[in-house]
Amino acid sequence: MSFFRYRGEERQLWRNDLSSIIGTFFYEMYVQVKSCTNFDYNKRSSIQIIQHHMWKKIIIGFVIFIFLLLAAAISLPFIYKGKIMELVKKEANKNLNATVNFDNHIKLSILRSFPNLTLEIKNLTVINKEPFKGDTLAFIKNFKTTLDIMSVIKGEKIKIYAININESKIYLHILADGKANWDIALPDTSPVKTPADTISTFKMNLKKYAITKSTLIYKDESSKMLIKMEDFDHTGSGDLTADIYDLNTHTIIAALTYNYDGVNYLYKTNTDLTAILNINMKEMKFTFKDNLLKLNEFFLKFDGYLLMPKDDIAMDISFDAPKTDFKNLISLIPAVYSKDFKDLKTMGKMAFNGKVKGIYNSHSMPGFNVNIQVSNGMFQYPSLPAAINQVNFDLKVNCPDGIFDHTIIDMKQMHFALDKEPFDARLLVKTPVSDPYIDAAVKGKIDLGQVKNFIPLEKGTNLAGILNANIAMKGNLSTIEKQKYEQFDATGNLTFTNLTYSAPDLLQQINVPEMRLDFSPKLVTLQNMKATIGQSDISARGNLSNFLAYFFGKGTLKGEININSGFLDMNSLLSSSSTTQTTTDTSVSITAPILPANIEFNMNSTFNRLLYDKIDAKNVQCRLILKDKILTISNLSMNVFGGSIQIVNGSYSSVNPDKPKVIFNIALKNFDIAQAFTTFMAVKQFAPIAKFAKGSFDARLEFTTDMLKNLKPDLMSLFSVGNLKIERITIEGFKPVQKMAEALKMDKFKTLTMQNISPSYEIREGVFKLKPINFKVDQSEFNVEGTNNLDKTMNYLLKIKIPAKELSSQATSAISQMSNNKLNLNLGDFITMHVKITGSIDNPKIETSLNEIKETVKEQVKGKVNEELNKQKTQIENKANEELNKQKQLLEQKAKQEMEQQRKKAEEEAKRKIQEEAKKKLKKLF
Q1: Co-location of 43 and 158 in the same domain
Q2: Residue 832: pLDDT band with limits 50, 70, 90
Q3: 712: closest CA among 858, 804, 815, 588?
Q4: Are 336 and 328 contacting, i.e. CB atoms less than 8 angstroms apart?
Q5: Does residue 133 fall inside a structural domain?
Q6: Number of domains in the chain
Q7: Structure confidence by residue, pLDDT tens digits, 103-127
Q8: Does an H or E element contain 349, and which?
Q9: Of 23, 44, 76, which residue is a domain's last?
Q10: Are residues 28 and 144 in the same domain?
Q11: How far, in whole angstroms, is CA 672 from its chain's centroid?
Q12: What is the DSSP letter of 579?
């Protein structure tokens, strides 16, 4: 038989023949090995000796072959490990708008799946880029695949036989505009494609795949749908390389949740689906064969097919419930399906069936219908005293042609009795898209305190109060939109009396003594409602309009509400149910609220006292406007921490529910610095000096930040600018300041007291920047500027002008040593120092700039030289002046003498002349 032609039975015969040959070979080898141990050359013929040597060589050769085979099995994975890693990473990141990564230490084995190769990758992640930045599309703890080893060795197309995914988290996300986060293939911009470019390196010869112990989340914002599968196992097998084959699948989901438009239709439902699909790849037709879906205890079977020849999807699928006991249907109700469900006593029958038929594409939907009926239903828990009975339900939803406006929802009856108290409702909806017509009525009374007698409540749950409903409405929505209220009939009311509710996941008990809603065609009026939540109290009144248009998704629900409270503890309202408190940590875990869309409320609020996080505010007044998932706050004022806060304007937005945004423009007056540090995370992270400060301040500041899930600011996104005014502040015990004082040998600087300062700051991308500020500490003048970061690192420069009279001998000595010069300062002198503070808040590093000190010394020496020169100059000048004065005196004395001599000579000459004249006159007389 040829080894190259075998199919079906021939393949088995060939395997049998091969097995016989191998078995005979090993048996003969065994005989020969055994005979070799007792071989006697003297007693054997030449032919026997030759045969003996031949078998000996065969045995030795076979041992070598086995050794080489084992060596190859061990070494091949290591030889080709790098090649496979390179191929996997190259293919994974090729043309993807996402980042693919995994542990570098991948495992390769040939022994597990011989003669194939097993590739195992740990911690595989696929992280989205914009516009889904932050989404983790997939995290797979263990990814295992079986490859054809020869295709790896030859470097041709890598053939994949099996895939196993274990402990994965898959997150599928569709935005409101229809963009999907799994659409990560980048567009091909190559102008020309060659056949080699269009063919992938990998080829699927898949026979089996499995996903185990995984979580899958599907979030579709465009259709307001959320599907969550927890502890998800799925396996599939079949000849996936064939054109026509059966795909055998089995899916188990420990907890399946299906939420549509905020309503959970399935919640943590135990799911088991066994399905066999006949797949015709040539016609792209998928036909349901044997299949059964189990949701808790509700069973559903499918028949029909899907046909996808091109873009259109043609379908003809019918479904029905093979088990018709009422008990099977109510297992879908989470409150009913509990640990005691198996002992539930039930009566009654149900029917559940429907059909989907038509074409699905971008502009059409298939027609569908669903019928649900319950007759004479009853159920009672054996441990509870009362039964819910007389359950009758008849609902038909029919859309014959896939046009939603042709859908008719007809709930002819919904009736049940709690013990002997009846409750009835009916609903008819037509033309739900173009102009909804509604004919509905609800009437009944429920004693909520008796619910525990019908349904087992969670331990610690308390529910009491009376619900009365008597509401009827009939007409087209268009009549309300045109304000023709007389053409629409809406009457009745809904009241709650003495409502109380508490549960283990609530921190506080809710009490509503009275609440009444009155219905009219124009408004739903909320009468004076009073409620208490723990120690908090709330009273409200107002009205709602456009409620029917909102219900049908054709308008915005509007309201005018006044809210008042004597005391409101927001921590208890916003806290998550998983909050645990200890004696050492009294803080609460707060969850960022997601604001509703298509709601426009105007609220005027007054709170005598309001607690939020660590803020205890009094006399709170504000106006709130809720619109399009944004809460706008205006004219908010409150007294807190001995001062006041005024929010000129601000807003909280949950348009992006994963990153709510806050914007505020705030004025603070007489705000305590230490309280600001203990209360506000941003102050704690960006201004740690506030912990060691005493004083109060006024401020005007603006900030914008994204919020985390716990309603704390995302500090890396925080942008803030502000100006502060501080009359007096004392800083004591702040390590960077203490280290600075120690470096300067000036203990007086360990405590800084400043007055009338006006610091300004900016926070951006995790960096706090203090703008240059001047202030005085006693007679020393400071100029400070710098930055500190979220990681507590800092970089500050201080320019300090210190009077000489304030320098101690230690400080003078230290400065002299740093400058290598001796300072001889007079009391009137100043010295300017530059101090650089780096490192971290907890471990600061101090550097003093020697250049400034040396310049100070130079100026000092220069001053001394000039002083000596001036002194000598003065002495010379004085000596010269003395000499001049002396010479002057001598000259003056000499001149005086000469003048005296001249005077005497003149006098004598004059006297002589007079005497001569007199003699002449006498002579004339005589």
Answers
A1: no
A2: confident
A3: 588
A4: no
A5: yes
A6: 2
A7: 766 676 655 555 677 778 888 888 8
A8: strand 345-360
A9: 76
A10: no
A11: 32
A12: -
Q: How far apart are CA 69 and CA 150, in angstroms?
A: 15
φ/ψ of 873, rounded to 5, equals -60, -40
Distance CA 574, CA 828 (A): 63
Look-up: residue for tokens 């943590």? Answer: 268
Is the per-residue pLDDT at 386 higher than 60? Answer: yes
Same domain as 104, residue 34: no
The one-letter amino acid at 216: L
pTM of the full structure: 0.62
Terminal Cα distance for the chain, rounded:
204
CB 808 within 8 A of CB 795: no
Tokens read off for 222: 């465009």
**pLDDT of amino acid 508:** 80
Instruction: Using the predicted structure, report yes or no on whether residue 354 has a pLDDT greater than 50.
Output: yes
Tokens of 79: 């030889």
Q: How far is CA 448 from the centre of its chain?
A: 39
Task: Using alpha carbons, select from 833, 811, 837, 807 the residue that is nearest to residue 737.
Answer: 837
Cβ contact 424:442 at 8 Å: yes
Spatial contact of 100 and 126, defined as CB atoms under 8 Å apart = yes
| Strand 599-612 versus strand 523-533 pairing type | unpaired
Residues 63 and 102 in one domain: no
Here the tokens at position 188 are 């091909």
pLDDT at 73: 44
Pair (48, 151) in one structural domain: no
Same structural domain for residues 117 and 169? yes
Instruction: Report the alpha-carbon distance of residue 538 to residue 463 in Å, rounded.
Output: 20
Percent of the chain with pLDDT over 70: 75
Cis peptide upstream of residue 115 (ω within 30 degrees of 0): yes
Residues 176, 116, single domain; the answer is yes
State the pLDDT at residue 925. 52
76, 111, 135 — which closes off a domain? 76
Give me the domain span that covers residue 21.
9-76
867-878 b/e (C-beta count within 10 Å ≥ 16 → b): eeeeeeeeeeee
Asked if the structure places residue 160 within a domain, the reply is yes
Least confident range from 88-92, 668-672, 755-759: namely: 88-92
Residue 883 has pLDDT above 90, yes or no: no
Residue 761's pLDDT is 93
Asked whether residue 103 is domain-assigned, the answer is yes
Question: What pLDDT, on a 0 to 100 scale, did the predictor assign at position 150?
Answer: 60
Give 126's strand partners: 100, 138
